[in-house]
Every structure is written in structure tokens, then in C-alpha cells.
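Async update (no meeting this week)

Hi team, since we skipped the sync, here's where things stand on the single-chain job. The sequence we agreed to prioritize is pasted below, unchanged from the tracker. I ran it this morning and attached the output directly underneath so nobody has to dig for it. Comments welcome in thread, and please keep replies under the output.
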Amino acid sequence: MSAIVYRCYGPPDVLSLEKIEKPAPADGEVLVKVHSAAVNPLDWHYMRGTPYIMRLDSGFGRPGTTRLGVDFAGIVEAVGEDVTRFRPGDEVFGGRTGAFAEYVT
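Output:
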């Protein structure tokens, strides 16, 4: 699948579109095919690594999580074990790191 990835902090030039492995839902998770994702101020701060206190969560020298995107909407494609509130085909929205991709868990 395709996803927006960043491997260092900086301006938008640090972003790249890359092919990565499609995630699978773990126990208690759902796999969502992303239909739309919004740019959230958090995405800007994560990409820039500022304010520097954010690096306590995301990594000091470079980002620990390389995928951006927080807000998304899409369709549940698969569910992990113990998931009872959602099923494939449900329309959902939410907030989850890595939403600038074709799929998110």
C-alpha cells in the first residue's frame, strides 16, 4: 500500500510517498480502508518536531513513528479477534497515527 512517510524532522520536503506493508488488525483492532484524511495541526508539529517537547513522545533525533496523519474516515475492511462493535463494511471515522495511507489500524 502507499503511505506518506517522513524519516527526519523538517519542512514538507521531508515527506515522501512510499510503498509499505499493508497492516493486519491485531486483537481488538479494525483495519480501515481510508477514503479521506484531514491535515491536523498535530501533523505539522510532528513533521517539524516542534515544539521540542513533542520529541519526548515522537523521538529526539528523528521520528520514532515514520507515518503521518491523525484524522481519517473510511470503511472497515477487516476486524481482529474480540471486536464486537464493528464489522466489515461499516463506515467509520477516527484519529490514529498513520492516517495518510491507504489503510490504517
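Quick observations from my side:
The CA atoms of residues 36 and 88 lie 18 Å apart.
The mean pLDDT is 94.
Reply here if anything looks off.
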